[in-house]
Amino acid sequence: MAYRRTPAVQARLDAQREVVLQAAVGLLAERGYGGCTVAAVADRAGIATGSLYQHFANKAELSVELFRRVVNREIAEVGTALARQDTPQQRIAAVVETFATRALRAPRLAYALLVEPADAVVDGERLVFRRAFRDMLATEIAAALANGELPEQDPVLTAAALVGAVGEALAGPLAGAPESGAADPARAAAEVVPALVSFTLRALGGRDDSDA
């Protein structure tokens, strides 16, 4: 007869898995993927390395789950900011502003999510991440087109181009931050984010209030 875990045992394992993921999130924010070794995560979580393998078969599996955990949090934050706005163009600006601000204020973590070399499985997850933001923007671009706020364009193609442009614009500041440790995240956000929002609205053919 196959062994079946009791509810108490399963609850204990679920709680331990959550501790492992929280430890991994902390290490990712501090050291990036290079610092998220299985041994380091187990040590931070206060468990034996062998115990970690009860939850994740290898580092790649842990990295994927870690990436999804952090990315889902970022998507939720952007979605909350978007929902507070009234018009499609305001919501588009909110997506870019929130994403870029959060990235620049947590540069080590954002560098790991967007730029840092990692396992191939993480690169695959990055595609999913970018598509999620593309779809957010495409929905609002389509709404703005329907309202006559923007000139005719392909919402999905434009959104994909914007995601790529914003990511590339952030890559430079993020790539320097992990090593120097001297960058002022608040200052970087204050300088870069308004320019990215302005670029986005102008690229769409919409109204940029900074021109007023």
TrEMBL record:
Pfam families, A to Z: TetR_N
DNA-binding region range list: 37-56
Keywords for this protein: DNA-binding
Gene3D superfamilies: Homeodomain-like, Tetracycline Repressor, domain 2
Domain HTH tetR-type: 14-74
The keyword Transmembrane appears for this protein: no
Superkingdom: Bacteria
Molecular-function annotations in GO: DNA-binding transcription factor activity; transcription cis-regulatory region binding
PANTHER family: HTH-TYPE TRANSCRIPTIONAL REGULATOR PKSA (PTHR30055:SF226), HTH-TYPE TRANSCRIPTIONAL REGULATOR RUTR (PTHR30055)
Protein name per Swiss-Prot or TrEMBL: TetR family transcriptional regulator
Organism this protein belongs to: Streptomyces rubellomurinus (strain ATCC 31215)
